[in-house]
DNA sequence: CTTGACACTGAACGATTGTTTAACTATACG
DNA sequence: CGTATAGTTAAACAATCGTTCAGTGTCAAG
């Protein structure tokens, strides 16, 4: 990660401060006013630099849609932020995944740092309370919380898949040249699941269990 | 706090999820698209209602400047603010436990909210990276992170105990009238451990594993 | 039957806001 | 000396976005 200039650190610090105070990102002209710029283009330049160096990400054309992708900890103390991610917990994930956001069925939330959870901050992780023991041979038990990331599965990934209108946890198997299938990791269960219409909602990254 | 209609709850839920997922509030037209409205005015009405009832606040004329004034669970009950705890991770816990804090051997830190970790904030929790497979029958594998609280063990608790100068994970068994002992939960291991000098460093509250 | 709330359509307006192009200064590098 | 980067000014543009006005339909309360 490239280093930031002094000015860029100031800008980034202001972004964070504004976000923490108002829970909203500032607009270009608010940043401009705060630093006394006479042109919004001064802001533009800095934000482009920050984005180029990977510190923030933005959605072009949309208002107030910065995101700070990196939590630069040590050194500059205007930061005390850790990479803690707030993740919704679903009991059951309803069909579809229309907008990357699912309104129904949220039963709680958890906070965990991205590294421990094995997820990337940018992606929209969600969590799932495991019901049933179809994955006990993979060390996932009834009542466990599984943290997932929505993305296409690779071979051997544990995935949350929509089967018969319900989300279940299975291992995704795809050998080359063959059709993929899902496998339950419990010796006493039917282990193979043919995949007709495969709706993968996410791949499991980590699991949390209360002992 | 006035009560919300079903539709208003849906809107509010979407606002929260969008904020948590994107760290940005949605625009009117994003809300419109998500709910399939054909007019942004439908959104206007709901947001006005939500603001009137005190659930959100906004800055007129500015883009994406909602704020939710309270956090809610599904029942519209304000959730007490979650407590994220910073926990040190030890590879091996050295002898003693002088101040509840052991600096040597710290291999990292993790952040997690107290409820998910099953711990109480007041106590000084610590985490331990599991080595070996002495507890696989309890669903704890090599490489797992176990979160512990220093306190006296009860029967059947999984504890971190100092054996032969090394910290290992065992289940603590104490039947009344008998001497306590430690039990490894792996069928292929010697399961019973006599306890000469029992040094319990903490009891396990939860486990986190990367899949 | 009327009133009022809730939920929504449709179109248009104007302000906010991100973006672009052009030009200027200063500093550092080779 | 030329070039590159950082930082800034200036004016204008176009898309996004919140807002308003006018109107439709439903349903429960009075």
Most extensive chain-chain interface: A-B, 51 and 49 residues
Number of distinct helices of chain A: 4
The count of domains of chain A is 2
The low-pLDDT segments of chain A are 71-81, 93-104
Broad shape of chain A:
elongated
* Name of the CATH class of the largest domain in chain A: Mainly Beta
Largest sheet of chain A: 9 strands, mixed
Q: Using only CA atoms, what is the Rg of chain A?
A: 21 Å
Distance from N terminus to C terminus of chain A (CA atoms, Å) equals: 39 Å
Task: Enumerate the strands of the largest sheet of chain A in spatial order, edge to edge or round the barrel.
Answer: 4-3-5-6-11-7-8-9-10
CATH fold annotation of the largest domain in chain A:
Umud Fragment, subunit A
The helix/strand series of chain A, from N terminus to C terminus, equals: HHHEEEEHEEEEEEE
> In percent terms, what proportion of residues of chain A is strand?
25-35%
Keywords:
homodimer; 211 residues; alpha+beta; Arc Repressor Mutant, subunit A; Umud Fragment, subunit A; 2 domains; nine-stranded mixed β-sheet; 20% helix; 28% strand; elongated; DNA-binding
Description:
The structure is a homodimer of 211-residue chains. Chain A is of the alpha+beta class and 211 residues long. The first copy, chain A, has helices at 6-22, 28-35, 40-52, 114-117; strands at 56-57, 67-68, 84-90, 106-113, 126-129, 145-149, 158-163, 166-173, 181-183, 192-194, 200-210. In chain A, the strands form two sheets. Chain A has a nine-stranded mixed β-sheet with strand order 4-3-5-6-11-7-8-9-10. In chain A, α1 packs across α3 (40-52). Chains A and B meet through β3, β4, α4 and β11 of A and α1, β4, α4 and β11 of B. β11 of chain A pairs antiparallel with β11 (200-210) of chain B, so a sheet runs across the interface.
């Amino acid at each position: 990660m490239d280093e930031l200039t002094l000015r860029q650190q100031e800008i980034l610090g202001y972004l964070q401060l504004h976000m923490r105070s108002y829970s909203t990102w500032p607009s270009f002209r608010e940043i401009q006013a705060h630093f006394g710029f006479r042109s919004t283009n001064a802001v533009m330049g800095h934000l482009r630099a920050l984005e180029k160096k990977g510190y923030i990400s933005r959605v072009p054309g949309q208002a107030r849609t910065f995101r700070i992708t990196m939590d630069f900890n040590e050194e500059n103390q205007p930061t005390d932020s850790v990479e803690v991610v707030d993740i919704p917990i679903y009991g059951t994930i309803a069909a579809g995944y229309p907008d990357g956001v699912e309104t129904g069925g949220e039963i709680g939330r958890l906070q965990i740092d991205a590294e421990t959870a094995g997820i990337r901050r940018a992606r929209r992780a969600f969590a799932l309370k495991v019901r049933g023991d179809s994955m006990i041979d993979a060390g996932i038990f009834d009542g466990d919380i599984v943290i997932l990331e929505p993305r296409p599965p690779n071979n051997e990934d544990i995935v949350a898949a929509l089967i018969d209108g319900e989300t279940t946890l299975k291992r995704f198997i795809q050998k080359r040249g063959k059709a993929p299938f899902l496998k339950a990791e419990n010796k006493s269960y039917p282990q193979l699941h043919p995949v007709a219409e495969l709706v993968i909602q996410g791949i499991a990254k980590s699991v949390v269990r209360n002992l």
